[in-house]
Specification:
Blueprint: H1 2-14, H2 16-31, H3 38-49, H4 58-61, E1 67-76, E2 81-89, E3 104-112, E4 118-127, E5 131-136, E6 143-147, E7 156-159, H5 165-174, H6 178-194
Parallel strand pairs: 1-7
Antiparallel strand pairs: 1-2, 2-5, 3-4, 3-6
Helix pairs in contact: 1-2, 1-3, 2-3, 5-6
């Protein structure tokens, strides 16, 4: 089961389609007909693509679900940039009071507020430190950022400044990602129940 979940992360989020294929070819040439582990699978992916996936193994070594907070989204019209600051944390557990940062692929896209169209397609940001800022360029209109497209990582996502009803409705109406539209609809529904 773990290796099947790895396939989605490695194949679409971290290594890309060609990198995943190279890893699968190496995996089968090394282990065809053998009893293997998920560690063997990850090692083949790392070796075939010359990448270090040791931090990714924390998903298997550390207990708990990480929380990722969208600390801020800052847009500069003059520079045509959108800076997204993300912070991760994971609650202590009895056997692990202090957690090390996970390797978290977060897929984002950008929708233009004026054009109501996608102005930056889905791209994967790798959150590997406790807090990082990612700067997206070629953003020439006020953006609405779609975060965690396709549920790209099994995390709890929250926004330091909660999204407004208008922003959630905009995502529901114009986002091209089904998961983000669904999440916006659920959040709006919950907010409407609270305000009744």
């Amino acid at each position: 089961e773990m290796c099947i979940r790895d396939r989605g992360v490695f194949g679409g989020r971290i290594l890309g389609r060609d990198g995943f294929r190279k890893g699968m070819d190496l995996y089968f040439s090394r282990h065809d007909g053998q009893a293997v582990t998920c560690d063997d699978f990850r090692q083949a992916m790392a070796d075939a693509n010359n990448v270090d996936l040791s931090q990714f193994e924390r998903w298997y070594d550390q207990a708990g679900t990480p929380e990722v907070e969208v600390v801020s989204i800052n847009y500069s019209r003059e520079d045509g940039t959108c800076a997204i600051s993300l912070r991760q944390r994971c609650n202590p557990t009895p056997d692990q009071p202090k957690k090390r940062p996970f390797y978290i692929p977060i897929v984002v896209g950008v929708i233009g507020k004026e054009s109501c169209t996608e102005i930056r397609p889905s791209e994967t940001l790798i959150l590997e430190n406790q807090q990082q800022t990612f700067v997206l360029d070629n953003v020439w209109e006020e953006p609405v950022v779609s975060v965690l497209r396709g549920f790209s990582a099994p995390i709890n996502l929250r926004f330091k400044t909660p999204r407004t009803d208008e922003e959630l409705a905009f995502i529901l109406a114009y986002d091209t990602d089904d998961y983000c539209r669904y999440d916006a609809a659920q959040t709006l529904y919950k907010l409407s129940l609270i305000h009744i």
